[in-house]
């Protein structure tokens, strides 16, 4: 470790769009912040705002009690932190990993950290870079609660809501995967809808106010259906799977008549038909959760 670096409140490893947003929010909160990125030069603007640039990840890790890493995935995290010199610099300090990946990778990272005497919290960021440092940011954490409590004063500088989900280290990644599953499948549905609408001469601008209406159905539905799903009730009153599958078939036919790939909708329709085939035709659409996850 280089002794010429004065101690910082926090180190940020990884200066992609998200890492830069995190470091910027720490700086805006008046915290001394050390930064490092694999490709040099990404720290230029941050240095102009007072960030300390480290020449290597080990120098960066040695500069603060708390290191936040946010890179593309855990392969990149491993490449950065697992070399002995970096692990040595992190020993006895805290590493908060805000990189997105799977629960298994989070568990593996935690096991590695424990072997190397590194205090480890896993986390996930659920909102875009523009929310960082504002009340709109959403941060999820899992791992030792006292570690989260200890570093909250610094992490709070990122603004927004910070939720500790429990000691099970994979929990933040599990929420991240589930929430991004909603986001990306919904975005795929929206892109498909735009393609079908365009083929019918309906522009995105014309569709938007009504798309907004469809989107607004989701928040109350998430709340109202949760108890049913957790108890395995899947009530289909007013909207049984048999009715859902018929509207899905219309979408498939309409899009394929325009030569538009209906693969995503066909997959959904196939799940619904399997549920009906197992005698659940009068249940609600979420019965397909059981088809997907029979355990
Ligand atoms: P990226 O996911 O593109 O990550 C870019 C960062 O990863 C850069 O610092 C890049 O370094 C580094 N990196 C990539 N490969 C390697 C490698 N092999 N070794 C070392 N470093 C590597 O951009 P973001 O900053 O946007 O995302 C970071 C994380 O934040 C991701 O896990 C993402 O899912 C998550 N996130 C991002 C959001 C967003 O709005 N951007 C929203 C919520 C979460 P280099 O500059 O050298 O290429």
Q: What key attributes describe this structure?
A:
alpha/beta, N-(1-d-carboxylethyl)-l-norvaline Dehydrogenase, domain 2, eight-stranded mixed sheet, 13 helices, 8 strands, elongated, binds NADPH dihydro-nicotinamide-adenine-dinucleotide phosphate
Structure description:
The chain is of the alpha/beta class and 295 residues long. It has two domains: 3-167, NAD(P)-binding Rossmann-like Domain (Rossmann fold), CATH 3.40.50; 174-292, N-(1-d-carboxylethyl)-l-norvaline Dehydrogenase, domain 2 (Orthogonal Bundle), CATH 1.10.1040. The protein has helices at residues 17-28, 44-48, 57-61, 74-81, 84-90, 103-115, 145-155, 171-199, 204-215, 218-231, 241-257, 263-277, 288-292; strands at residues 10-13, 33-36, 52-53, 66-69, 94-97, 119-125, 138-142, 161-164. An eight-stranded mixed β-sheet has the order 3-2-1-4-5-6-7-8, with helices on both faces. Strand 2, helix 2 and strand 3 (52-53) form a beta-alpha-beta unit. Helix 11 (241-257) packs antiparallel against helix 12 (263-277). The N and C termini lie far apart (49 Å). Bound molecules: NADPH dihydro-nicotinamide-adenine-dinucleotide phosphate (NDP). NADPH dihydro-nicotinamide-adenine-dinucleotide phosphate binds next to helix 1 and helix 4.
């Amino acid at each position: 470790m280089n002794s010429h670096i004065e101690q910082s409140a926090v180190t940020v490893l990884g200066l992609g769009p998200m890492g830069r947003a995190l470091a910027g929010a720490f700086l805006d909160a008046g915290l001394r912040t050390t930064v490092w990125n694999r490709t040099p030069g990404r720290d230029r603007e941050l240095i102009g705002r007072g960030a300390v640039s480290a020449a290597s990840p080990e120098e960066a890790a040695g500069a603060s009690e708390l290191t936040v890493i946010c890179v593309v995935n855990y392969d990149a995290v491993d490449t950065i932190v697992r070399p002995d010199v970096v692990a040595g610099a992190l020993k006895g300090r805290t590493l908060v990993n805000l990189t997105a990946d799977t629960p298994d990778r989070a568990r593996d990272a935690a096991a590695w950290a424990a072997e190397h005497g590194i205090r480890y919290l896993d986390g996930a960021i659920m909102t875009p870079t523009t929310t960082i440092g504002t009340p709109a940011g959403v941060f999820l954490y899992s791992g030792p609660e006292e570690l989260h409590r200890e570093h909250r004063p610094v992490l709070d500088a990122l603004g927004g809501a910070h939720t500790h989900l429990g000691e099970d280290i994979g929990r933040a990644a599990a929420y991240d995967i589930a929430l991004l599953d909603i986001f990306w499948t919904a975005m795929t549905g929206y892109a498909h809808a735009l393609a079908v609408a365009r083929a019918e001469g309906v522009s995105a601008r014309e569709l938007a106010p009504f798309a907004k209406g469809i989107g607004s159905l989701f928040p109350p539905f998430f709340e109202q259906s949760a108890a049913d799903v957790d108890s395995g009730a899947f009530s289909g009153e007013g909207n049984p799977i048999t009715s859902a599958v018929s509207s899905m078939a219309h979408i498939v036919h309409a899009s394929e008549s325009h030569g538009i790939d209906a693969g995503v909708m066909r997959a959904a329709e196939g799940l619904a038909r399997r549920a009906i085939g197992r005698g659940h035709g009068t249940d609600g659409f979420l019965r397909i959760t059981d088809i997907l996850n029979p355990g």
